[in-house]
């Protein structure tokens, strides 16, 4: 969740952190004449995720939370983000700070949940009210349904892979998998495939 974007214009290229790029619902920091040239997503450490669907897969989430265990560089090793809570997905630095090591205690987890709820400007719209979102964000996690892992930071370049990755995406409603995508592939080149 340390993604960044390379934005290109006639004046050159600038790199913007994803959290700074998104300003609000349908708002970005993209300037006139700029295009997204590249999206940089660091290869994560092995991880698992919890997933619970209560509505159709193509519906907009009322609340979504993503947690990732990042490399420890003196900061909290956790990256936590929430979507459907504020006008656009947000990192939750207060919740991250409550988790100071890779194996937090139940008390530290409770503190992180408390900080996530208290540190968010919960929106109220036609999909869900502020109190319901507060309940969802602070509620118990669903059971683990799926596991996904990638090699750790000591295997290969850029903290995890040899450079070529399989990539699955949905194009015109159909899922397509590209078996080997070089790590330095530009977004425009990917769309041409």
From TrEMBL:
Residues 123-134 have a biased composition (Basic and acidic residues). Residues 123-166 are annotated as: Disordered. InterPro entries: CO_DH_flav_C, CO_DH_flav_C_dom_sf, Diverse_Substr_Oxidored, FAD-bd_PCMH-like_sf, FAD-bd_PCMH_sub2, Mopterin_DH_FAD-bd. Its EC number is 1.-.-.-. Residues 47-137 form the CO dehydrogenase flavoprotein C-terminal domain. It is an enzyme of class 1 (oxidoreductase). Keywords: FAD, Flavoprotein, Oxidoreductase. One of its GO terms (molecular function) is oxidoreductase activity. It holds the Pfam family CO_deh_flav_C. This is Molybdopterin dehydrogenase FAD-binding protein. It comes from mine drainage metagenome.
